[in-house]
Design the sequence.
């Protein structure tokens, strides 16, 4: 990582003209909060369950037909699993959120990076969800809903207490900001 790759949000201020990367706004004023690294395990287990079905199907196909195309498929499945595990680790590290006075910033993505800026006044409601795997790792996801469906943002991999705090804060700020509309 270079000196400009600091993910903690404490990067040195950019030039006075503003940031050069549109996905890294105002580094001197934004303090990015990472999601829990346990999200890596949740995503890896989801991948493992899917790949278990694929591998069993390929092994059964190989056993029943003797066609080595199934063996090649099995090798490809293993390679893709290893590649996807690497991507999962990097993708979870790319997730972050920052609370500001008037909006919430959410960033994620590796190849296609995305920065969502959700004004508190535009939020209609906030969901907190936790599936079975998330609950097993004591995690939850906060989903923000706005009038424009395309602008909905989510923050996965939060501890339940942090998810509840964020939900309550966003709801209160949304109500305060909406009064002026």
Sequence:
């Amino acid at each position: 990582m270079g000196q400009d790759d600091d993910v903690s949000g404490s990067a040195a201020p950019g030039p006075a003209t503003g940031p050069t990367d549109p996905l890294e706004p105002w580094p001197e004023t934004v303090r990015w909060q990472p999601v829990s690294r346990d999200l890596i395990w949740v995503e890896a287990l989801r991948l493992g369950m899917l790949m278990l079905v694929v591998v069993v199907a390929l092994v059964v196909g190989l056993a029943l037909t003797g066609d080595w195309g199934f063996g090649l498929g099995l090798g490809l499945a293993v390679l893709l699993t290893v590649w996807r595990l690497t991507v999962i680790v990097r993708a979870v590290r790319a997730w972050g959120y920052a609370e500001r006075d008037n909006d919430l910033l959410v960033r994620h993505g590796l190849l296609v990076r995305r920065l969502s800026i959700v004004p508190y006044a535009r939020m209609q409601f906030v969901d907190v969800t936790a599936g079975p795997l998330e609950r097993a790792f004591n995690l939850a996801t906060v989903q923000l809903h706005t009038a424009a469906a395309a602008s909905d943002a989510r923050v996965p991999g939060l501890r339940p207490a942090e998810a509840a705090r964020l939900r309550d804060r966003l709801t209160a700020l949304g109500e305060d900001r909406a009064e002026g509309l």
